[in-house]
Amino acid sequence: MPLLPNFLERMVFFTLNQGPAPLLDMFGAIGFRVVVTAIHLGVFETLDAGPLAGDSLAQKLGADTEGMRLMLEALEALGYVRKQSDGYVNTPMTKKWLVSSSETNFAPFCLYWDTLLSKLMTNLDQSIHSGKSPENLYGWIEHQPETSGYFQQA
Q1: Engineered SS bond to 87: which of 44, 51, 67, 148, CB 3.0-4.6 Å?
Q2: Which residue, 10, 4, 63, is CA-closest to 31?
Q3: For the packed helices 65-78 and 22-41, what is the interaxial angle rounded to 10 degrees?
């Protein structure tokens, strides 16, 4: 979920200018990377079948137990999973927007944007400086079947 500052944080960051507001953008970017990594690893799809303890989820996905624990804690803080007595479960938001069993699956769009950000927009500073796009999106995506697939699914 997007990072939404509370009243005091908005006051500190925006009204009083006593904190670095770009920090909120960095936290949002980190959150997006965690969510996309969870999509790539199959965390949400696996939890769609039912609750799992962190170590069981790590084993099922072939991931490091400690790494999975940290990811699940981050996903819980971001509102994507919830810890219960019998393990982690997807939140209602995740069930609606980030699993293939939902008719409103938004995960392909997240994967599409992740690829655009990490592969196509790597030279944004050069593009702004020169005033020219280093690559045309549509020309580029023709040679990216996986990304094109994400776009079509989205």
Answers
A1: 51
A2: 4
A3: 130
Q: At what angle do helices 107-115 and 145-153 cross, to 10 degrees?
A: 140
Q: Which residues of the chain have pLDDT under 50?
A: none
Given its phi and psi angles, is residue 131 left (phi above 0), alpha (psi -120 to 50 degrees) or beta? Answer: left
Non-local CB neighbours of 51 within 8 Å, separated by 6+ positions: 84, 86, 87, 88, 89
**80 touches 35 (CB < 8 A):** yes
Rg (CA), the chain: 18
- Please tell me the pTM assigned to this model: 0.89
Task: Kindly list the domain boundaries of the chain, sorted by start residue.
Answer: 1-104, 106-154
